[in-house]
């Protein structure tokens, strides 16, 4: 592994930039808040560390939120704005519905903590807070056990080939090397089964299973994601080190363990294979490339001066979620979600509930055994594993 301090310091330079409400002549600079809110980085870091201790989901959720925000109309925090009236917001586009609530909650809590300091109130943009939080979650994950519906198809799809990936990233000023480095964000987080089902069941008429997929891994995926599986089932994207930000992603590709077509193609295509092989052997080289790519990503479509609009971070809307045997809707700005995790054995799937509050009222649900549970009003974070 490379030196964590070097990567963290580099990410500080990469992501500590002002993305909104910047005088046009000033453009981007690291010390923009030196006089208006000098302690902003420590405040955001403290919130992120607290969220990280509560749930590891904070890491992939925040990282994905940053990527999805920057890739659609630039890094302006528009992905966190809620739908209103007849306007369907960016975060409610189908490509963004899988974004975990913990990423949004991280931004909300960090913004609240910053605004709690009188000197900082309404001085730090949501976009900057998201950028700082992203820097911090990547640093934490490296430590041993670490705009609307019309904007369709502006995010890379799991089925993309190298030409499609390269073209989409190039449209955002990112090189093929940047694209390969940023793809390694898939070393963290989860994916729902429907995102890769075609690879393991109906790849082609002659090959039901994608031949580039490791055979043993394909069998495991079929066991975890059987046909007509519950759409809430999710699995780790990195089957080896899913809770560590590292270069194992590239080693996995060498073994045919890329979950998406867009992952595995980085190794199967001769044009990108040398980079994959090099970074699989040299984690420090990968980390340097990732920092460079994140720096460039953080500047995609940056709105300076009078460009863009100002929206409060807290204009999120809660999302409906359901569980087997019943359903409930989160209220009062709470972010709740449920995932049906792959079974440890054919008869014991796990149902995982995550709720980041506070709640304005209790939430109740019924599990298959007809046992009911209630969240107390004071619940701040709930994580239940129920064996059916």
From TrEMBL:
Residues holding heme b: 186
Site entry (Transition state stabilizer), positions: 64
Positions of disulphide bridges: 37-120, 70-75, 193-225
Manner of cofactor binding, per the entry note: Binds 1 heme b (iron(II)-protoporphyrin IX) group per subunit. Binds 2 calcium ions per subunit.
A family per Pfam: peroxidase
Active site: residue positions: 68 (proton acceptor)
Record's keyword terms, sorted: Calcium, Disulfide bond, Heme, Hydrogen peroxide, Iron, Metal-binding, Oxidoreductase, Peroxidase, Pyrrolidone carboxylic acid, Secreted, Signal
Protein name: Peroxidase
Lineage summary: Eukaryota, Viridiplantae, Streptophyta, Embryophyta, Tracheophyta
């Amino acid at each position: 592994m490379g030196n964590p301090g070097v990567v963290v310091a580099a990410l500080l330079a990469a992501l500590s930039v002002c993305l909104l409400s910047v005088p046009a002549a000033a453009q981007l600079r690291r010390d923009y808040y030196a006089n208006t809110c000098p302690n902003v980085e420590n405040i955001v870091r403290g919130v992120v560390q607290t969220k990280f201790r509560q749930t590891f989901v904070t890491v992939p959720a925040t990282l994905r939120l940053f990527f999805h925000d920057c890739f659609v109309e630039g890094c302006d925090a528009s992905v966190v704005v809620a739908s209103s009236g007849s306007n369907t917001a960016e975060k409610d586009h189908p490509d963004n519905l899988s974004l975990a609530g913990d990423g949004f909650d991280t931004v909300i809590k960090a913004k609240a903590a910053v605004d709690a300091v009188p000197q900082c109130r309404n001085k730090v943009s949501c976009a900057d807070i998201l950028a700082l939080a992203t820097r911090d979650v990547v640093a934490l994950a490296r430590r041993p056990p670490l705009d609307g519906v019309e904007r369709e198809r502006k995010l890379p799809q799991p089925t993309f080939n190298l030409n499609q990936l390269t073209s989409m990233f190039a449209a955002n000023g990112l090189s093929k090397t940047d694209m390969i480095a940023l793809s390694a964000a898939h070393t963290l987080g989860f994916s729902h089964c429907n995102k890769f089902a075609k690879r393991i069941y109906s790849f082609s008429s002659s090959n039901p299973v994608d031949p580039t997929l490791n055979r043993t891994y394909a069998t495991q995926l079929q066991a975890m994601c059987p046909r007509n599986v519950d759409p809430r089932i999710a699995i780790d994207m990195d089957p080896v080190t899913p809770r560590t930000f590292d270069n194992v992603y590239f080693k996995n590709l060498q073994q045919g363990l890329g979950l998406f077509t867009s992952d595995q193609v980085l190794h199967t295509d001769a044009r990108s294979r040398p980079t994959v092989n090099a970074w699989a052997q040299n984690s420090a080289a990968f980390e340097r490339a990732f920092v460079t790519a994140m720096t460039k990503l953080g500047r995609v479509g940056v709105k300076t001066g009078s460009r863009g609009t100002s929206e409060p971070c807290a204009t999120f809307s809660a999302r409906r979620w359901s569980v087997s045997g019943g359903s409930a809707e989160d209220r009062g700005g709470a972010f709740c979600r449920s995932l049906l995790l792959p079974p440890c054995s054919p008869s014991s799937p796990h149902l995982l509930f995550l709720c980041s509050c506070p709640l304005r009222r209790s939430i109740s649900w019924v599990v298959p055994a007809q046992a009911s549970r209630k969240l107390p009003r004071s619940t701040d974070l709930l994580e239940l594993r129920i064996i059916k």
